[in-house]
Amino acid sequence: MKPEKVLTIGIDIDGTVTSPSSIVPLMNESFGRDLRYEDCYEYNLANVYNITDEEFDKWLDQNGERLYKEAPVHGNADDILRAWHPHFKLVYISAREDRHRDVTINWFSRYDIPFHELDLIGSHDKLSAAKKWGVDLFLEDRLENALQLSEALQIPVFLFDTPYNQGDLPSLVHRVTTWDEVQEKIQLLSMERTSV
Question: Distance of alpha carbon 35 from its chain centroid, rounded?
Fold first, then answer.
């Protein structure tokens, strides 16, 4: 009998494992605004804050370390990821740059969040990394990524519901609001795989 393949879960970090609202207070502080997380109706915060992409890139370059260090955990992601670690392969694929590896690993360590692989690709195009690691499903908060990954790889993507990722979803993209909901859906998926 063939050994059962371990489920490989691709996981975005910012807005998925970290709270999606964590960037807003820092940007308000820097740009003298008083926006709420609910006001962030699109992923490109340069548009939301009425600044140029270059200004946002410069801001992130200067504040990324602080943002990644101070971000709170998204709900009970830490508990669920600890429970998954012995059973699934956890591969974090993030648009963070590799120069933020230390602050990222320290943050994971502080919250006791386990991982098997940590791929900081410095780009929002996660397709080649997802292929490289052979992910079976993906957890994401950016709508464009969810659509691209589900279509190109024909895998389920769980999209965490945010003000900036609204829109119609294809059948492989599942909108979720909590980590508990993801846990339930992945348990069902695992049972389906083992019963095949």
Answer: 22
Residue 101 is predicted with a pLDDT of 97
pLDDT digits (tens, 9 = 90+) for 36-50: 999 999 999 999 999
Give start-end residues of each CATH 3.40.50.1000 domain in the chain: 8-20+74-195
Describe the crossing of helices 101-110 and 53-70 by its angle, rounded to 10 degrees.
Answer: 40
Q: Which of 73, 68, 77, 60 is nearest to 9 (CA)?
A: 77
Query: Average pLDDT of 104-126?
Result: 97
Sequence-separated (6 or more) residues with CB below 8 Å from residue 102 = none
Distance CA 182, CA 178 (A): 7
Quote the radius of gyration of the chain (alpha carbons, Å).
17
Q: What is the DSSP letter of 11?
A: E
CATH fold group of domain 8-20+74-195: Rossmann fold (3.40.50)
Dihedral (CA of 182, 184, 186, 189) sign:
negative
Closest by Cα among 6, 7, 2, 8 to 133: 8
Q: Spell out the alpha helix ranges (H) of the chain.
A: 23-31, 45-48, 53-70, 77-84, 101-110, 127-133, 143-153, 179-195
Report phi then psi at 93, rounded to 5: -120, 115
Beta carbons within 8 Å of 125's beta carbon, 6+ residues apart: 148
